[in-house]
């Protein structure tokens, strides 16, 4: 059923995709696997967009489908989570010029159910807003999300501004987003790159001493 879900999303069969996702969950499928199928389909959609087969409307429809599937899955993942003392505080946001929020939202949600206090600044977040939040929240970790090529430089500028504000040594910074990787993290001046929400949680735990 997972392959059917991937192709229903990738082929823009919205109604069928949501029905399949619900059926998978009803059949006891791991909610994380349903979310992973959605992400796999997004890669296909992105490739078709790049090849000129899809245009902006398809990106929007695909984004809406993933959001709807995320809304189905989240209560189930939440129910599996254990409630204990917060492991630490995290300021998270998509950098200036970039409005992709689905990946960031999954990261924020997974950190939240892993007992981190998440301060999500939203999308298109300028450096000043990150600095203000770091001063107010005093987080151990800052997460920068970005899906566009322009995000490389925006992330670099953001970290430079955090440094200039004298706050760089007080936070660990992780980055993520479809086009990011380890070498981008190095260029940007981040402490680490995380390929997905599981990696984000692992990094945050490793920096806050959480198990
Ligand atoms: C859906 C989508 C959109 C939707 C976004 C909806 C939304 N609410 O987010 C809309 C329609 C708005 C959109 C707009 C645009 N998009 Co778009 N979009 C996509 C698409 C298909 C999927 C992205 C997505 O949401 N994936 C789902 C998430 C859940 O998947 P994920 O990446 O696996 O998420 C994980 C990791 O990224 C990681 N992660 C994410 N953030 C963070 C943060 C941290 C700290 C860590 C550790 C990890 C982490 O964890 C996530 C969860 O596991 C991608 C293609 C792709 N391959 O990504 C193109 C893509 C990103 N878009 C692209 C483009 C070009 C655009 C537009 C410029 C198009 C246009 N002509 O207007 C605009 C840009 C608008 C702007 N200023 O931001 C290009 C970017 C190319 C580039 N190198 O710059 C892509 C790559 C498509 C392509 N192949 O060409 N887009």
Q: Report the structural category.
A: alpha/beta
Question: What ions, cofactors and ligands are bound?
Answer: cobalamin
Mean pLDDT: 94
| Level-2 CATH architecture of the largest domain | 3-Layer(aba) Sandwich
Taking Cα atoms only, what radius of gyration do you get, to the nearest Å?
Answer: 17 Å
Please tally the helical runs, counting DSSP H or I stretches of 4 or more residues: 9
**Helix-strand string:** HHHHEHEHEHEHEH
* Main beta-sheet annotation: 5 strands, parallel
Brief descriptors of the model:
211 residues, alpha/beta, Methyltransferase, Methionine Synthase (B12-binding Domains), Chain A, domain 1, Rossmann fold, 2 domains, 5-stranded parallel beta sheet, 11% strand, globular, binds cobalamin
How would you summarize what this structure contains?
By secondary structure, this protein is of the alpha/beta class.
Descriptive overview:
- With 211 residues, the chain is α/β, with parallel strands linked by helices.
- It has two domains: 79 residues, Methyltransferase, Methionine Synthase (B12-binding Domains), Chain A, domain 1 (Orthogonal Bundle), CATH 1.10.1240.10; 121 residues, Rossmann fold, CATH 3.40.50.
- It contains nine helices and five strands; from the N terminus they run ααααβαβαβαβαβα.
- It has a five-stranded parallel β-sheet, sandwiched between helices.
- Helix 1 runs antiparallel to helix 2, helix 1 packs parallel to helix 3 and helix 3 packs antiparallel against helix 4.
- Bound molecules: cobalamin (B12).
- The site of cobalamin (B12) has 40 residues, from helix 3, helix 4, helix 5, strand 3 and strand 4.
